[in-house]
Amino acid sequence: MRESHDVRVVLSTYGSRGDVEPLAGLAVQLRALGARVRVCAPPDEEFAARLAEAGVEVVPVGQSVRSLVTGPRPAPTDFPRRAAVLVEQFHEAVLAAAEPGGAVVATGLFPAVAGAQAAAEKLGAHFAYVALQPTMLPSPHHPPFEYPMRPYPAEVTDNRELWALNIEAMNALFGEAVNGHRAAVGLPVAENVRDHVFTDRPWLATDPTLGPWLLPADREVVHTGAWILPDDRPLPADLEAFLTAGEAPVYVGFGSMPLHDAAATARAAVDAVRAQGRRVLLGRGWARLAEADGAADCFAVDEVNQQALFPRVAAVVHHGGAGTTTTAARAGVPQVLVPQIVDQPYWAARVAALGIGVAHDGPTPTADSLSAALRQALTPGIAERAAAVAGGIRDDGAAVAAKLLLEAAAG
Question: What is the 3-state secondary structure (H, E, C) of 47-96?
Answer without folding.
Answer: HHHHHHHCCCEEEECCCCHHHHHHCCCCCHHHHHHHHHHHHHHHHHHHHH
